[in-house]
Amino acid sequence: LALRKLLAGCRVFPQVKSIYLRGSFPDGGWTPGLSDIDVTIIIRRELDSAREFSFLSSLWNRLKTLKAGFPMIGEIEIFREEHLNLSNRFRVSGYEAKNWCKVYGADAVEPAYRENGSRLREDALNMAFSFYVEYFLRVCSDTTRSRFLRLQDSERVVAKIRRCLNFCNRDENAANSRFLDEPALLDWLLT
Fold first, then answer.
1. Buried b (16+ CB within 10 A) or exposed e, 140-171
2. pLDDT tens, residue by residue, 162-179
């Protein structure tokens, strides 16, 4: 239902070229009640700055309303079509782009990540750290929400961090491969 509402809310904007699911949903690791739905929205390139700003303001307002009613809607990234493939060259999400699932519109994603074990490892560590700093610490310290909701959100963010750390273990020949003991690192994050 959340995904149907999200798609319906975005389809009313002709500026939306395509919508992709990413993360655990298309990878088959999505768990109802625990996982969120991460989305990438691609917008058309023909917008001038003023029209793009007006459109994005309207779109973000609609998405904010949808997220209030459907908290399982997770991260939403919005890219102009000419910027998407550039972004996908340099981040873990670019590595994962080959697994994204188009749910609306025209094809826009061309996996452009130049895979290299040490680079993927560095990108994954950076992403795990950003999840920890940007989300985990904020979720744990938000005393305005119930302990139950904070625990649920914490588990969701830890799952994202774990997914990032799994990329670090893909290069078996890396010199520092034993530095990342996933359970020990997660214990450290949670203390």
1. eeeeeeeeeebebbbebbbbbbbbbbebbeeb
2. 877 777 766 544 444 434
